[in-house]
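The records we work with from here on pair a chain with its fold. These numbers are not coordinates but entries in a learned vocabulary of local backbone shapes. To see the layout at work, look at the sequence and tokens printed below.

. . .
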Amino acid sequence: MKAIVCEAFGPIDDLKCKEIDDPVVKPGHVVVNVEAAGVNFPDGLLVQGLYQMKPPCPFVPGNEVAGVVAEVGEGVKHISVGQRVIALSNLGGFAEKVLVPATHVMPLPDPIDVKEGAALVTAHATAHHALKQRAKIQPGETLVVTGAAGGTGLAAVQIGKEMGARVIAVCSTGEKLALAKEHGADILINYKEKNLKDAIKEATDGKGADVVYECVGGDTFHACSRSMAWEGRLLVVGFAGGEIPQFPVNLSLVKGYSVVGVFWGSFTQHDPKGFAANMQELLTWYVQGKVKVVVDEALPMERATEAMAKVMNREVKGKMVITP
């Protein structure tokens, strides 16, 4: 089968599209014929050796896919050959076939397009876990979302609104803010035009944010860390801006708020039942039209490096997908 292979940690352009052996099914697993794979910011970090996880090389990146089940291993009862599914693969998704633990494979409802299904798993599930389990956000609270036009930021806007929050979207352009507004944002802040700390203070009548979904890092994080309400929750989701900020812990002490890490991949491993319940809720919302994946572009596998570069350069509105 064809796959995108990382032979050694290095620049994204070093990735190879090549023939490798098909995966072999084993007990408790299924093999999925991949029809679409979501591209995420951590994929680019992973192949450069910059992510928390460093798999042995060579490996195939890609952690979220949608497609059709080709083979079912011994002991698997809830999935059958020929079924449309979405799957969390951890690795191996940028290929024509992938072996996935059956616990991380779910039926894909017929109304959901395969490209949207592939792009639903990581971004929306991260935002859902962050706001539900980590922030425990409550109706009427104010939620600030940075990078609000990216895949996971846009998901946080949608899910925050569904959970009853007042959502402030933070983006770098008017075009991106318009997309966030289209998906439910109540207040828009262009941090290139306004001082972010002052803008959040004004938008919250001086109270500050109850919850911040922070996935940019750098100066954006620093501004948010000074814009928290009493008993607020500052969610550390990622560092799409490139800089991992240093946090002055006295701010948390004086302002009485929590800094909460969000590592969704670890959550899926530590609490598979909670992950499954979250995904069921997400899929229900999706079918009901309450959340929506925005697929900016779908590129063939041969252009996977281009797709990953666009994500890393923050040139994508919504999600990027590759199609074997």
The longest helix spans residues 114-134. The radius of gyration is 19 Å. The chain is about 30% helix and 25% strand. The chain has a mean pLDDT of 94.
